[in-house]
Design a protein that fits this description.
single chain, 62% helix, mainly alpha, 390 residues, 3 domains, 3-stranded antiparallel beta sheet
Amino acid sequence: MTKTRLGLRAGERGAQLAGLCLLVLLVACAPRTELPKELLQFYVTMQESALRFPQKDGAWDQHYGDAPYYGTAFYAKTPSLRDGSGAARQPEHAALARAAAQHNLKTLARAQADRAFFLENLEEVMMSALGVIEYSAATADRSGLAQVDQTLDVINGFAIALGYYIDIDAGMFAIKTYGPTAISAGVALLNLQYATYIGGESATDRLELARSIIQKIDDKAWDGVRYRVSPRDDLLELYPNTMMMLVLCRLYERTGEIEHLRRAEQVYAAIQPLRSPRGGYHSPYSAAAMGAKSEDYTTLSSQNYLTVALTLLFQDTQDARYFNEALYVLDFVRTRLFDAASGHLLHHFIDGRIALPSDPEYFCTGCNLQFLYAVHLLMQAVGPKESAQP
């Protein structure tokens, strides 16, 4: 009896040891998800550059709609850079975020009072609301949420009146530039971000509205493989697909319904023809407007959105190929879109060259701030908690 027990215990110990060895082997062989030193150093360089962007009354010059979201959220979530003595670099991140959030609330108030401004500047209104949502979550300052709620009620009412798919022109820059699928997905994302970061009594209603919008986008724009720009436009484009990857990942996170995550992965597979061997992904939506003479055209903004979508896919699946693909995109941004003379990331890469001042678009502070947001999000996905310096 004693021998049997000793034999079993010895066998158990052997099995435990074998299991431990297997675990160590799996950990050792698992793909490493670390940000390269070059990217971390570049991230600090771009933060230093962004601190020089003029901000007046909370608004950044030349932001083109993106800064109210990404600048506000980034500075609310991240520590200030430090100088050699350990003192915070000026202006401090918290001050930039606070000023930006106040500016965003003024934009929302103006939109409430002037519906023509609301429709003509729908993208900036949505970005302002998204910025306040993440600012409130990061700082616990909920004083602006009533204004956000009112804005969402108007945007949601607008979407419902249009049958959950915003397919109109009416002089709206966002619809003409990005297409109705991407903008409709943006409304769904706005509601999902609220449910994710704010919660509360209205979270369930906002989640269900997002679900209704996603279903209508499927009915209107899903062709069985990927999302179209609109029901009338079959161009394979990044924006509608990356926006839907974001939305589907957020819906999966809120519901645990695996089919949404699987659809997001399917969409990722569908955009692979846009992947470029020189790095990054082609973004055809504005190639003609910028005067591109070939398909070799990529915008900074599109790569930022793609990076955020890939980060959520990595976070939700723990599949390292999405992490590695995010690094592939960011390496293109770092090596092909950075202008050392100005210290800025420029608007696009076109026909084998970086943007020129003579191009229709050249530089956007909002896209530079969005890059910082995207890198920070990827850093958070791999952990541990970020410090101000690499």
